[in-house]
């Protein structure tokens, strides 16, 4: 199998360089000096130029035509290499390099403009990012039945399309609003009070991260304005953030990112530095982070253990019982920030972003009008006004770094999480008993065995189908939310 061996040897070098580029992005958001942004943008552009040249090397086409895969993993590797090769051939090298340069600069400009609440300073660079992504989407859509937005979505959710996402959202929205309105009409949940020093928050978060299966010998935890996970294989890093008035922000952001990291660390080591040696899609990735954060860490069983542990660490936290603590953790409220939203409101935040970014990429909404459109839609959907840009269209990093087509995968991940946890509880009846003792391993072990170890061996929907035995559906998620919040807000 010389053609297959040559193809995979070439691909491993490409994968290694891609990891270097990813780690450079991690550094930009965690360690890089503020004044280094212009140079880093040139570095990122240079790396992308090298990667694009490798991903479009004509030898790949020859090898793909000649190669015979030795097994199912080889078939999957060739599938992903072919998909990447055909997509990258459509994107001019100059455009790929310019996108890397502009989005690197835009990320720093977003941080500065967001901190200053200066929307006018951010709009011009965002308009440039959108223009470049429109150009890329149009190039990728050539020869297909997809529009530019659907074409961009393939980077995050292979096989996904906006029409299916919109239909899914239409089915989910009425039941989500019913759950939310009932909760908001009920008795408000209690709030924590007390002293929550940064050092203790981080120490507890590291303890919880380890319990959820994060291997710190192959990772590290740092601080970032917007928590994220980065890397795969033997180097998988997470970030979190600290608010000394709100320990839940740090704790649950950490568990969320551990879900992503555990997926990457859980892939079969035999797939290391190959196309299938990572998560298959952002929707499946999000299924891990959302199941870890919400259906495990925010469960009544785990909250019972966490209540005692937080009192050990912080002393009096102003909540009188395990049940009240559980209600505090799962409070349904009115807030601007997606990453701090409760499980019920979260998907409504995603629906807003999906509609706006799709309209922007398709040319139906000018970037100059994006803030107004956001504010109008937010008022209509949530019933109160946006008070400042950092609570509105500038709150997320995604658009500044060009991640158009990414947002709908968050809700798809919630849907997948509902399917996976229903199957895990079916197969492992002792999950809640273990969680009540601070031990998530029966649930996380099920995820590793049934999903994580396979990496990108199967396409996204087939990954969920193989793990659960059923087709993906929104019903398990909606039933879970109705039962949980019906109990919390009777």
Automatic annotation (TrEMBL):
This is Metal-dependent carboxypeptidase. The active site is at 257 (proton donor/acceptor). Its cofactor is Zn(2+). It comes from Jannaschia faecimaris. Belongs to the peptidase M32 family. Pfam families: Peptidase_M32 (PF02074). Its EC number is 3.4.17.19. It comes from the Bacteria. Binds 1 zinc ion per subunit.
């Amino acid at each position: 199998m010389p053609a297959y061996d040559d193809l995979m040897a070439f691909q491993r070098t490409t994968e290694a360089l891609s990891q270097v580029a990813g780690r450079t992005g991690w550094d930009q958001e965690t360690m890089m000096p503020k004044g280094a942004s212009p140079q880093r943008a040139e570095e990122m552009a240079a790396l992308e130029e090298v990667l694009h040249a490798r991903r479009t090397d004509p030898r790949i086409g020859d090898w793909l035509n000649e190669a015979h895969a030795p097994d199912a993993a080889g078939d999957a590797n060739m599938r992903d290499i072919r998909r990447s090769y055909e997509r990258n051939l459509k994107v001019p090298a100059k455009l790929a390099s310019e996108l890397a340069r502009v989005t690197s600069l835009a990320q720093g400009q977003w941080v500065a403009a967001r901190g200053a609440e200066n929307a006018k300073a951010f709009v011009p660079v965002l308009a440039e990012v959108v223009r470049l992504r429109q150009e890329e989407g149009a190039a990728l859509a050539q020869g297909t039945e997809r529009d530019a937005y659907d074409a961009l979505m393939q980077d995050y959710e292979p096989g996904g399309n906006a029409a299916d996402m919109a239909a899914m959202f239409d089915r989910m929205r009425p039941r989500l609003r019913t759950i939310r309105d009932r909760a908001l009409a009920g008795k408000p949940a209690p709030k924590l009070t007390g002293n929550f020093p940064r050092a203790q928050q981080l120490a507890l978060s590291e303890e919880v991260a380890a319990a959820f299966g994060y291997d710190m010998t192959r990772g590290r935890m740092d601080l970032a304005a917007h928590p994220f996970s980065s890397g795969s294989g033997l180097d998988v890093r997470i970030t979190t953030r600290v608010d000394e008035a709100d320990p839940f922000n740090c704790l649950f952001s950490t568990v969320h990112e551990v879900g992503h990291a555990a997926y990457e660390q859980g892939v079969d080591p035999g797939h290391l530095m190959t196309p299938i040696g990572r998560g298959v899609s952002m929707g499946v990735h999000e299924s891990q982070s959302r199941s870890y954060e919400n259906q495990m860490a925010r469960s009544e069983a785990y909250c019972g253990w966490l209540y005692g542990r937080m009192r050990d660490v912080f002393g009096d936290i102003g909540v009188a019982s395990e049940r009240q603590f559980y209600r505090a953790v799962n409070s349904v409220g009115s807030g601007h920030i997606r990453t701090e939203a409760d499980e019920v409101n979260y998907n409504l935040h995603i629906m807003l972003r999906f509609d706006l970014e799709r309209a922007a990429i398709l040319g139906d909404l000018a970037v100059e009008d994006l803030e107004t459109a956001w504010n109008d839609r937010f008022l209509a959907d949530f019933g109160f006004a946006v008070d400042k840009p950092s609570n509105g269209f500038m709150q997320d990093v995604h658009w500044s770094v060009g991640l158009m087509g990414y947002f709908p995968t968050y809700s798809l991940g919630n849907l997948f999480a509902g399917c996976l946890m229903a199957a895990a509880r079916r197969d492992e009846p002792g999950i809640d008993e273990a969680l009540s003792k601070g031990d998530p391993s029966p649930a996380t072990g099920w995820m590793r065995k049934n999903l994580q170890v396979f990496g990108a061996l199967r396409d996204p929907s087939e990954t969920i189908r193989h793990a659960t035995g059923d087709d993906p559906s929104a019903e398990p998620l909606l039933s879970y939310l109705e039962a949980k919040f019906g109990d919390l807000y009777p």
